[in-house]
């Protein structure tokens, strides 16, 4: 890294900080942030400068100042972490984006193209640092681009220029050397840097307690319910379950109608639904793109099967693949409660629990409902065994915040199984449906994301 130079502008007497030595980059280098923990006083000037520079509305932040603390009296310590996009070498936001709105530029900056974004928010789940932010006024996701227009003219990023203690700097890094050893990107309460190979270099002072925790760990809150996704996943799985056990044209028609309704509800999750077709662009890397393509194909096949029964086999195969893709897109490191093979299994069991009850195969449904409870218990045990806040937080939300809903979900499922055993499948269907719907809602609201440390005052 090179020292900054000062230049007096022609129309002002105040010097402007420049980074001309960082331009151009040498071969194999990229830009990155560096942050000195012991220099940060937590004044939040960087947050304000970032918001003003990029015209961000209240509630949308590209840079956040968090607090970590640990130790015990009289040696307890508190530090601040100012973090924005880490411009990773393997950015998860880029890999998962269905519209290919993200681009890794030659200078290393992970750039987001707003015109290509449909506001699906999948990148906000993929990023273990929760960097991309959904901006309500624009109905799309936005993020830090290291103030690229300023860098292009030799100016520092706004956050760097605003830092009164020079805790924040921008520098170059040798990509190959950093890929081989990126331990300097790790800090207490930050997600492991090897998830995406974060490039932010963090200077940690001596004596940071090993048992540090984030101030925001105390502010456990439910996540958004994402009701359009609740209905999308439920309806697609029900449709596939009906297709798999249909024994009449009426049942095949039911599957086709439910599948078409599911596709219709899905667009209500998007910030820019008119551009929903762009979600098919990244079939090579994005599970969301694959989910959209497979369920569109399944809907077509299920509709064709209404008049050509032999097409049902194709519909079931494509639909099952769609259910797997739908579950697989939630298996992301940034959401520990979802990041397990149990997630696609849960989705498949929903199809087998509800579809057969509709078509008149209740024993299969009862077996699936029982297996669903076992899978739920296994996941909660996995999460409760881990001491990290993001893991145990889901258990706390499920068993404390949402205990009545959780108990009702279990009770309705067990009662549905009982009604099947009593040969009363018509009574079992609404209870099983209520249990699965409530379970899917809990799936979304109780997930605790990995993120950068937050502040006790931040909501």
Plain-language structure description:
The protein is an alpha+beta fold and 459 residues long. It contains 15 helices and twelve strands. The chain has helices spanning 45-54, 92-96, 122-126, 148-152, 158-162, 175-180, 227-245, 249-266, 287-305, 312-328, 342-359, 362-385, 389-401, 403-421, 425-445, and strands spanning 5-8, 15-18, 29-36, 64-70, 77-83, 102-104, 110-112, 133-135, 140-142, 168-174, 201-203, 213-214. It has a three-stranded mixed beta sheet. Strands 5-4-12 form a three-stranded antiparallel beta sheet, with no helix packed on it. Strands 1-2 form a two-stranded antiparallel sheet. A hairpin with a 4-residue loop joins strand 8 (133-135) and strand 9 (140-142). The protein is globular. Residues 1-17 have low confidence and may be disordered.
In spatial order, strands of the major sheet run 10-3-11
Outline: globular
Per DSSP, what share of the residues sits in E-state strands of 2 or more residues?
Answer: 5-15%
| Number of beta strands | 12
Keywords for this entry:
15 helices, three-stranded antiparallel sheet, 12% strand, three-stranded mixed sheet
